[in-house]
Design brief:
four-stranded antiparallel β-sheet; alpha+beta; 8 strands
Length: 204
Amino acid sequence: MKNLHSLIILLVSCVRLGYGYFITVDAHSEECFFDRAEGGTKLGLMFETIEGGFLDIEVRIIGPDQKVIYQGEKESSGKYTFSAYETGVYHYCFSNKMSTLTPKVVMFSMEIGETPKGTIGAVNEGEVGHTKLEDMIKELSGTLTSIKHEQDYMHVRDRIHRTINESTNSRVVMWSVFEALVLVVMTVGQVYYLKRFFEVKRVV
């Protein structure tokens, strides 16, 4: 039981850092965010355009030396994972400059992995390096974090599709009611016209 308790504590402590945000990017504007990462740290950006226009957005990831690591145009969703090639501040920007009127609502999360450790025997290093069990636990924690993000992603997509379906159903109902009203008006008009036609014939 004690070993199990220790494993649980280790698992929780190894879970990688990740944040989820909802932002609104106005037309002709760009929103940028940044995180500082040590060289060798794994970073993962996941995003989903959940509202506005054709549900597309432009994405850029920029390194500390202003080098463009990733750039995508008119993307509705995506996931990009990379390793920090040097210590510094990494920016990720969402641009809606191609839109003239419509703002976009974007959900995104930046997953930051654990900072890589030095080699065994270095200064301030523990008596032993990572054991095989610790590495397996860290790999498991990373997988759990990825699964959680995927679940959030699927939840958002489900909400988007449900909203689209509800909107489509509402339009179908409104169009059906409109068609029914048109048929009723046409029927009443035809009856009135025929009635007037026969009344005129009878008077003549």
